Amino acid sequence: MQLIAVFPYGSVPLKTYLPDGDIDLTALSCQNIEDGLVSDVRAVLHGEEINEAAEYEVKDVRFIDAEVKLVKCIVQDIVVDISFNQLGGLSTLCFLEKVDRLVAKDHLFKRSIILIKAWCYYESRVLGAHHGLISTYALETLVLYIFHQFHVSLDGPLAVLYRFLDYFSKFDWDNYCVSLKGPVSKSSLPNIVAEVPEKGGNTLLTEEFIRGCVESFSVPSRGPDLNLRAFPQKHLNIIDPLKENNNLGRSVNKGM
């Protein structure tokens, strides 16, 4: 009998979800049974979909065969995404939880994420990786950048939103990438050389803190080639704090 564990990750366990958000789950198992596990999960959900006596209404079960295999469905009108052996999502959750505890101030970091997510989703319509827009983790990293650089002046979510809009509306996206270490000129790639921000020296996260998070929470990409590749330039370039060759802006479509 194979042992399988299921964990939530993303906005729900982080407690930064929106009313229209989905639920992300990942099933952890041995690699050699992953394909069989995917098939079993699909079969169970399809069974519930046609079961008129099911406790919960399940509909629109779909399988997405991508780099990360995904089973999507709707349960009681809530979108549920089930991935398999997605350790990256769990490590990101742990990383953001640790940052929130460092910021403190009655979970100011999380409360600011909720406000900025709401603005990006409902007002500006720029949030949603599945629609060629920015991903949630990319947005959370941008919020983290604001805390990292301007934490001294941030006393509430509205102050964070103001600084977020002010800073990134003026950011030179055509020529620079965002990284926690500071803006990185695209001309320096594949070497990642950050320019010291104008107000450098009083940042929130110390080098020791960041290095400890990288050591604790970094997860190798699935496939050795992905671990060795250079940072891929896209229309929006955001360097993952936990993995420098991962562009969190890769989901953004220029047309969108």
Poorly predicted sequence stretches spanning 5 or more consecutive residues: none
**Structure annotation, total helices:** 8
Strand content: 15-25%
What is the SS-derived class? Answer: alpha+beta
The helix content, as a percent range, equals 25-40%
Strand order of the largest sheet: 1-2-5-4-3
**Number of E-state strands:** 9
Number of domains: 2
Radius of gyration: 19 Å
Overall pLDDT score: 91
Q: What oligomeric arrangement do these chains adopt?
A: single chain
**Main beta-sheet annotation:** 5 strands, mixed
- Describe the global form: globular
Protein name: PAP/OAS1 substrate-binding-related domain-containing protein
Pfam families: PAP-OAS1
Organism: Vigna unguiculata (Cowpea)
Domain PAP/OAS1 substrate-binding-related: 103-255
Structure description:
- This protein is an alpha+beta fold and 256 residues long.
- It has 2 domains: 5-84, 2-Layer Sandwich (Beta Polymerase, domain 2); 87-247, no CATH class.
- Helix content is 39%, strand content 16%.
- It contains 8 helices and 9 strands.
- The protein has helices at 11-14, 34-50, 87-103, 108-123, 136-150, 157-170, 207-217, 224-228; strands spanning 5-9, 23-28, 58-64, 70-75, 78-84, 176-177, 184-185, 239-240, 243-247.
- The chain has a 5-stranded mixed β-sheet with strand order 1-2-5-4-3, sandwiched between helices. A two-stranded antiparallel sheet has the order 6-7. A two-stranded antiparallel sheet has the order 8-9.
- A hairpin with a 2-residue loop joins β8 (239-240) and β9 (243-247).
- α4 (108-123) packs across α5 and α5 packs across α6.
- The model has no long low-confidence stretch (mean pLDDT 91).
- Residues 103-255 form the PAP/OAS1 substrate-binding-related domain.
- This is PAP/OAS1 substrate-binding-related domain-containing protein.
- It comes from Vigna unguiculata.
- InterPro entries: NT_sf, PAP-OAS1-bd-rel, PAP/OAS1-rel.
